[in-house]
Design goal:
The protein has 325 residues and is α+β, with helices and mostly antiparallel strands. It folds into two domains: 106 residues, no CATH class; 189 residues, 3-Layer(aba) Sandwich (NADH Oxidase), CATH 3.40.109.10. Helices cover 40% and strands 21% of the residues. The longest helix is centred in the last third of the chain and has 25 residues. It is globular, with a radius of gyration of 21 Å. 42% of the residues are buried.
Length: 325
């Protein structure tokens, strides 16, 4: 297979590589070439990540095309993608636009998939949709855990907790207000007004900092560098469990997303109800992982907003430390 002229063009920056990648992804989604996945560069591969699993796709070469067809057969057998022609078409686009130049630049940026990071983005491990603990067992065990061991949290556990909190379970592109699709917790009008931040202190493979969780890509975007748990504790009336826990979830609300449809009822009821739905998911998932959490509502709103550098449209609702107990 000959490389296209485009493939020979030198891509001069990391930004240009990533821009091409996301453009390919958006085109694919817009024309329904790929309905349930997104693309991540990783060295000599593109990862095609589904919401419960992922596949690696090589970049260039006739042998690799054969491998892709083989992989397509495996994927098709799972029922994830029903139209093999559309899948191969998408991969052909990647071959034409990506090739070796993009491969070398993806290498230079570092691995970006399944628990690996760039300076500002961490793509979380793919969450599991099966487990060893039943819903009934998790409900029976559920408690607010305030005392945490001096022990780091596995990245895979944080990934699972965030998926339980607000992960996408059914992609939906027809309604932009959904920002990706249906999620693990119910939302009035499927408007999803919550934003979840993670204060990482001692999470394996994730540098200390404050991260915004993106449900669509199941990833973390760093917004503040450095361990901010002490600052959040001070804004939360000195509650030490925030510092003891290796990771802390901060729930914020963008009320306008709900108010524009439901008015004050959305602000006074629906958004807070949604936070409760999501927080209970975190409780149950934590119990299933044999770790603990505790919902905190006692804090100074303005101090939290200032410490976490929240935007003017975000209002803090909940703090949930997570860790071994």
């Amino acid at each position: 297979m000959k490389k296209s002229k485009f493939c020979k063009r030198k891509l001069t920056s990391q930004k240009s590589s990533i821009e091409i990648l996301w453009k390919l992804q958006n085109i694919a989604l817009e024309v329904n070439l790929l309905k349930t996945a997104f693309i991540i560069p990783k060295g000599d591969f593109f990862k095609i990540r589904y919401f419960t699993h992922e596949r690696e796709v090589p970049l260039c070469g006739q042998k690799n095309i054969t491998k892709m067809k083989e992989k397509n057969t495996k994927i098709q057998s799972t029922g994830t993608i029903h139209d093999s022609i559309k899948y191969i078409t998408l991969l052909s686009m990647i071959l034409l636009f990506g090739c070796n130049r993009l491969s070398s630049e993806a290498k230079s940026t570092g691995d970006m998939a399944n628990g690996e990071t760039t300076p500002s983005v961490h793509y979380l491990s793919v969450p599991r949709d099966t487990g060893n603990v039943s819903v009934e067992e998790a409900l029976q065990k559920r408690r607010s855990r305030r005392n945490y061991l001096d022990k780091g949290l596995p990245e895979a556990f944080l990934s699972q907790i965030l998926w339980a909190a607000y992960g996408i379970t059914k992609p939906e592109r027809a309604y932009p207000s959904m920002r990706g699709g249906y999620r693990t917790s119910p939302s009035a009008g499927a408007l999803y007004p919550l934003e979840i931040y993670v204060l990482a202190g001692r999470v394996e493979g994730i540098a200390p900092g404050v991260y915004r969780y993106h449900s669509l890509t199941h990833s973390l975007e760093k917004v503040i560098d450095g361990d901010m748990r002490n600052a959040l504790r001070d804004a939360a009336l000195g509650q030490e469990m925030i510092v003891r826990a290796p990771a802390v979830l901060l729930y914020c609300a963008v009320f306008e997303r709900c108010v524009q449809k439901y008015g004050q009822r959305g602000r006074e009821r629906y958004v807070c109800m949604e936070a409760g739905h999501s927080a209970q998911n975190v409780y149950l998932q934590a119990e299933a992982l044999n770790i603990g959490t505790c919902a905190i509502g006692a804090f100074n709103d303005d101090r939290v907003r200032q410490a976490m550098k929240l935007s003017a449209t975000e209002e803090p609702l909940y703090i949930m430390p997570v860790g071994y107990y």
